[in-house]
Amino acid sequence: MFYREAGQFKASYREDQQIFPIRQDRIGIVAAIVFFFLVVPLIANQYWLQAILTPVLIFSLAALGLNILTGYAGQLSLGSAAFMAVGAFGTYNFMLRMDGIPFLVALVLGGLCAAVVGILFGLPSLRIKGFYLAVATLAAQFFIVWVLVKFGWFSNHSTSGVITAQHVEILGYTFDSPLSKYLLTLAVVVVFALLAKNMVRSATGRKWMAVRDMDVAAEVIGIRLMGTKLQAFAISSFYCGVAGALYAYMYLGTVEPEGFNLDLSFKILFMIIIGGVGSILGSFIGAAFIVLLPVFLNVAMHTSLGEFIPANIAANLELIIFGGMIVFFLIVEPHGLARLWQIAKEKLRIWPFPH
Amino acid sequence: MTFFFEVLIGGLLSGVLYALVALGFVLIFKASGVFNFAQGAMVFFAALTFVGFTEVLPGWTGLEEGGSAVFWLAFVLALGAMIVLGIATEKVVLRPLVNQPPITLFMATIGLTFLVEGIAQGLWGAAVRGLSLGIEDEPVMWILDRFEMIISKFDVIAAAVALVLFVLLAALFQYTKVGRALRAVADDHQAALSVGIPLKHIWAIVWGVAGFVALVAGLIWGARNGVQFALTFTALKALPVLILGGFTSVPGAILGGLIIGASEKLGEVYIGPYMGGGIDSWFPYMLALLFLLVRPEGLFGEKHIDRV
Lengths: 355, 308
Fold this sequence. Notes:
The complex is a heterodimer of chains A (355) and B (308). With 355 residues, chain A is mostly helical.
């Protein structure tokens, strides 16, 4: 009913190949973008903008990066937080050392730094596969954080590598308020999400998927493994790097290398697993879920049950519920929440007459 | 030169402990193909449960505090708890995920890590506790006199315990019916099933044995560094050992542990000062990574032949 495509004829290749071939999807996407750009600023308060919506968007971008690498190109990585750190510290140094550089340029340059580092640590993927590669990416995780702490140059010689984000100014407008930060983040994320959506349905994305499904077979049909894998590493790290820079400039303001630890990497991995591996939409759903779950648990603990449960047990209970939820979700829907949405779409297509 | 050997032997001895944790990984990976990230949490859980029982048992049973009766009773109870935990994990978490891609199973074990850590701390509290095995952490006088090297008695005994454990496990794998079944399952699940090996029982046994190994590792690590949350990070130390030795090889885990332990200490002492110190957080990984570039399947891992 809602997804009936009857009557939507494709009369040209152009129409057949458009990014959202179904009209309802196009309307939905435009409605969502309008909603988040225009309606949310009107209804959301400071807390929501600052503590929930902005981080969800930033983590969505990071999850998108990891999803490109893990979901589309099939290379498991446990070092995404480190690439975020490279992006954050890269942008910081460009802002610091190049006078008058526009923020967006520094952001992209920071992302490019992460891409270069990503290629370096992606090199082992040419010989190592699967879990061996996952553990190898841990080398990136620990090494990069160590370098950023150890060598003061990266953080302008501040103690233990803490950096404080400079003021962001674009065309004379200073991005200070939570609302302006949210809107800037949203704009960046929307651009990169559309880029990613386009990338994965082009020849690039198809090469990645071929490598993911079976690299030997992909090589046989003429895909160059080295180029494809390194490209996936570069683009994934670029996304993570930009996300890291946004994390520092739009969300926290002050970050230290230790903040980009293994836990953050795991968090991003959880996002794509719960959201859906190999799905752009899944990255967003997963990020929203992982950011909101602790907030929700916290609120639940402190309001309804707060009187009965002492604080130290509540903290452990949070851990237990978080772990339990992940296991539960994996058992119930191993393909992630994005798959649920797909099923819902299928159902809506034939509703109310399923036969 | 004496100093070099002192560092080397210290490294080898701590390598034995890495090997012990890595062994738990290998056992489970071999038998069920699950990369069990929760092994570190299991080590923590085991140590905490043991300490918890030694604290409450004198009150419950009237046994003398710190006596050997309490020690063994707590050991047995903790072992029971580990076996129950292992079997429950297998039944509740992994059984429903059979035939899922390895990454899903891996993620499930990360979820399990949080769960186990939360349960352990919820049951016994989050305070750092001491754990005494009744072995002094003092230099062995005999070696000090003969070679003028400081080698801790505790480390030597811990290594000996680990060695006994390795031999026991090797014997279990090599000479018993269960061991044969385990090896068959490790080789090929379906073939093992078709000749009538009860896969479910075997998996339960493997998780039980992994729980036992985690308990021994937890006791030794806990006695060394105190029973605290940081114990869960031993799992991270065991990962480079695994890639060095190969995920499916028990001798690989042992040899990998020794290499990582020794090179970590030597690297910290001889290379560290040139790079500002603190390199032990990533040095083992880099080492393992370089090694993998030469041998992608680890020291003793099975060579993969891909067919299209």
